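Input record (Table S2, row 412):
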Amino acid sequence: MKFAALGLSEKVLEGVRAVGYTEPTPIQLRAIPLVLSGKDVIGSAQTGTGKTAAFALPILSKLADHQPGGPRVLILEPTRELAAQVETAFRDYARFMDLKITVVFGGVGYGKQNDELKAGCDIIVATPGRLLDHLEQGTVKLDKVEFLVLDEADRMLDMGFLPDVRRLVEQCPRQRHSALFSATVPPQIETLIQWAMHSPETIEIGARRTPAETVKHVIYPVSDTQKTDLLLELLKRVNYDSVIVFCRTKHGADRCASLLKRENHAVAVLHSNRTQKEREQALQGFRDGKFEVLVATDIAARGLDIADVSHVVNYDVPQHPEDYIHRIGRTGRAENTGDAFTIMVAEDAPHVFAIERFISQKIPRVKLENFDYRYTALFEEPKAGAAAGFPGKVRGGRVHGGYHFAPGGRRR
Ligand code: AMP
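Output record (adenosine monophosphate complex):
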């Protein structure tokens, strides 16, 4: 099936050709005709499936060129980075249309945003807090919005943005088309759906919880004191082009980045204590290949479109199983293969089991050959009939579970 058969406008099809897409992805095949027919849509496809174009292309097709008195489209995103990325995608797809597209997010001055909003725009891509500020200051009105997209809704919930989202939605006309994307649908999102949407159709691409099938997952158990040694060794041995290393805390990310810098890796850091400028430089430098390693907290995990990430390393196991999916969604995007490594220490075991239950998949434990392991209880053979402290075994190749390392194997 080609894009041309989906009913998109000629100008949008030209835009699609210019960005080089030849065939629609599964979510685009399902969502584009629905949005074009005026239906409200809930999409639960994971990131990396082409969901931005799935809502952007039909919305653009339904807009004529610039008209005074907008905005007619409002896209809400949980993070500044995502907002910037989605704005860029809209500009790409709409390059043959005469539309004014504005991005609005916090952490930067108001001047440019005020000017653009006052000049009038057709499409706003925004994070909720700053847009609410503009609404309160009267720099923007939402009473002409025809299309509303709530992207990464579960992330907005996690970040405490739902009250702001509700206040913004209340300012939009009741007569509008809405789309909502969310990897998971917890009860609060269900309530939002009931309240904000009109008989929506749900599109689920693949099992909701299945990580991209192109990603190979591996867990490296290690003792707490050897986490950084193992990380350095992994980076040394793996033939990576670009790798994102995820840490639990901002402080941990800074520490990890300095360590990698000392070992001469080209490293950038992304977390919410960095200024907007530093965050942009980190992302741009990583995209351009100036930095090969991006050390990030979960703020970077959702939806960021960074092409060709060859590896994701979870230096810290994510505490929420859904964050695992989002983190590893950075690799194996758009059908490239990628590797996802998780470093696990003893106290991570409950979180790892929760992840495995969540994705209905056991992740193989791998021992790095010739790495000078110290003893860790994680390598103990589970006792027959014991509660699964270390579930199952995967044999064959270099992957085998339930290692037994005698204490004599300690370094020093
Ligand atoms: P998204 O899930 O929207 O973040 O998109 C993930 C990546 O897939 C982005 O780099 C898009 O440019 C790319 N992409 C989206 N749709 C297509 C398509 N139909 N063909 C090829 N690449 C696509």
